[in-house]
Amino acid sequence: MSAYYVYSLSSELLQSLIPRNLSAGDNQQAPEPPSSEVSPSSTSATISCNICLGATFSDINEQRTHFRSDWHRYNVKSRLNGGQSVSESDFNQLIDALEESLSGSESSSEEGTDSGSDRDAVSTLVNKNKLRTRSISPEASVRRAPRNALSWFHSPPSTQIGVYRALFPFDTPEDGHLQALKNMQKPVSGGRSWAMFMVAGGHFAGAIVRVSKTGEDDEVYHKKPKKPVPDTEVLRHKTFHRYTTRRKQGGSQSLNDNAKGNAKSAGAQLRRYGEQALRDDIRKLLTDWEEEIHDCELIFIRASGANRKIFMDYDGASIFKGDERLRTFPFPTRRPTQSELSRCLQELSRVKVSHFTEEVLRAQDEAYLASLPKPKPLPVEPAPAVLEKPKAKPVKLSKEEEAFREKWQRLVEMVSKGRLEPLKAFWEREGHNFGGIDARIPEWIGEKRVATLLQLATQSGQDDAVNWILEMHADPTVPVPHLELEGNGAEEGEEPDLKRRLSTAYDLAQTRSIRDVFRRNAGAHPDWWDWFGAAHVPSALSREMEDERDEKKKARRKGLKDRVKDREAKEKEKEKDKPAVDESMPIAPAPSNGPRKLGGGAGDMAGIAGLTPEMRVKIERERRARAAEARLRK
User: What remark about domains does the record contain (predicted)?
Assistant: First the structure.
């Protein structure tokens, strides 16, 4: 049974057609809901995509291929972010607008979608849409059906036909498609022709086809209302292939070079040569077909990213980027071959036909409108974000400043490690550059818990360095910064004296030797500072006081030794006063079947029952000692 062709529709059918609109009164045409009740002569797809505009499929394999395409991925991400879906032609235009150099199809399989060349492009487009502010219009709260690649017309009582929107001029409004379809039936001198090109994965296929007869050959309007004979003819065609794809790895060589740098393998060189040769072959073919391309009514190009630049905008190009004849195939395509071009030609030139009554169509429209997502509320303008203070850029130091910082670091290191002799020599040579012995340690040193060299030496436990710094007339009354800021470690309700007491270098001393250094200097130089007030030193320490303390310590140690000797002497006297053991008395023999141990018989085991092994060992040791003493006395 013959099919309806776009350029050979009968006049009776054209006169009965009306635009297919939603019954709810929306002026935008809705896609025909998929149904299995299609005329045998119809080539319309029975499966469609609810996200993408104009995606219809003849089987489930084509639908799966579409789901893996970048066009579908972009529309899904755009809808999730609150945006709108775009048609495949608009998507390709967005890809062309990017400045990045994108690769074409990277798969040599039968699938028509690219396997990964435009992944970055999809993410870039989605991120750009996030930054765009959506204009708020009164129509935002109205449910809108997404546009479909097909424009549908209804012929009462129960016939519907669909024509791809790509066949109409770009400037044709929705309500002008019917008149454009009627104009397409008028004969044209020389016939109507299309140019069709595909390139992906190193494969290329191109053809110049005539889709309608000339006015002299046949009349478009037939007197009898019957279906016309198909009228397509391939005028020119060419296919070739170049090695450009990295086998079993995916991605073209140019994409790999852009990501990882130029590879130096022999295969990489071959692939680079293949890409250049493919580009030269295509452009040479376009030059040979320049006259036929000039006469074409439409130009269909299937290419992604950088591959689209092969066809246009070069010196001597036959096709230019702003050409109104440019189209993309409004359905998924497979590997570029001559048979695939023929299939696409049939898909584009044939009219999609279905047969539903007006009641069924009205019910489908209502169900379809009910399935559309509810419009989102108008976005509320977000509050202005608080701008974060920019981080201070590191100040570039001069050579003098770098040298001064290095000197400070050396000084702090010698004080904290107690290297007294190098410290004296360094201070004698460079001390005048630091502003005195009480100079504050700079913040960039990182010592936040101390403020002066005296506090640093005290905290580090270096008594020699502390004594030298105090002899250099360092101020011991300078408060400790961290104790001063943290309330001196005191909780609420504590007495002020405790807070005041924990705030000087003396309070940082952790050993008696360090505290004695402060007390000695307080006794040697009582008029230098307020030692017993602001410096928190409890008392002075002189040489006589240290000698007296040493004498008391010696006397105390001597008294302890005397007491130990007296105790030992008394224990010996008690041992002498004990009655001697009569060795003539017989000793009960130990049972032969029991254990025999030194210091006791088998009967003694009952006395140590239940004791730990350690206690048993101790008791056994005491028994052996007593036995030895008895032998010595004998």
Answer: The VLRF1 domain mediates binding to the 60S ribosomal subunit.
